[in-house]
Amino acid sequence: MNNVYILEHPLIKHKISMLRDKNTGTNEFRKLIEEIAMLMGYEALRDLPVKDVQIETPIETCMTPMIAGRKLAIVPILRAGLGMVGGLLALTPTAKVGHIGMYRDEETHEPQEYYCKLPNPIEERTIIVTDPMLATGGSAVDAINQIKAHGGKNIKFMAIIAAPEGLKKLSEAHPDVQIYVGQLDRCLNENAYICPGLGDAGDRIFGTK
Ligand code: PRP
Ligand code: URA
Which residue, 78, 158, 198, 200, has fewest beta-carbon neighbours within 10 Å? Predict the structure, then answer.
């Protein structure tokens, strides 16, 4: 799986541990998701191209690097992926934002798509797909299929917590996609929840049950 990057930063690990705590309330949970997304974004955007531009400082004129080339699109998988958008927009405020709506069928755990609206055209953009949880991998694989069907090419996927099963499935289905993970957990349980995980990310972000 050479398209997978497990992020090893202590700040990311610490904040994920706080997320896992069942006593962490909605307000703090939302803030943590946003902060982790920003820290992960810092790592995931390391390869953005830069170009030297001329700037006049108060002292002299110099050539100095600025982000160049490809434009960005952030595409959260609804609902939980929405929680990561603010953290990434703090880094890249001019990015466009698309949305893909998916929910898992409670019995089969298969993803069901209910919404898709992407920036148009999307071909030339670097696309960051966000979802805090990569469990069976079904939602992420289908969301990226949909983005590719709309012409998306240069795609990165960010999950805060992944299960080995989902990571393998996504990496094999989309070997061209760079996958960034904050923490690789142990396994899935019989309800396809990640163990130890953090429970239902969407419910914890939005305070639903
Ligand atoms: C959760 C999560 C992912 C999906 C992961 O969404 O946010 O999208 O499950 O599971 P998978 O890897 O097995 O597909 P959920 O279906 O609970 O919808 P929600 O975000 O609206 O709560
Ligand atoms: N979706 C979640 O929100 N949590 C899990 O553990 C698995 C899927």
Answer: 200
Q: How far is the CA of 91 from the centre of ligand 2 (A)?
A: 26
Q: What is the pLDDT of residues 29-64, one digit of tens each?
A: 999 999 999 999 999 999 999 999 999 999 999 999
Q: Per residue in 83-100, pLDDT tens?
A: 999 999 999 999 999 999
Q: What is the pTM for the complete model shown?
A: 0.96
The range of the structural domain enclosing residue 17 comes to 4-206
The vertex-142 CA angle with 136 and 144, nearest 5°, equals 110
Opening angle at CA 92, ends 89 and 94, nearest 5: 90
The amino acid that residue 73 corresponds to is A
Probe residue for ligand 2, chosen from 130, 160, 200 as the CB with the greatest number of ligand atoms within 8 Å: 200
**How far apart are the CA of 195 and the centre of ligand 2, in A?**
9
CATH code of the domain covering residue 187: 3.40.50.2020
| Residue 198 Cβ contacting ligand 1 at under 6 Å | no
* Residue bearing the CA closest to ligand 1, atom 13: 136
**Count of domains for the chain:** 1
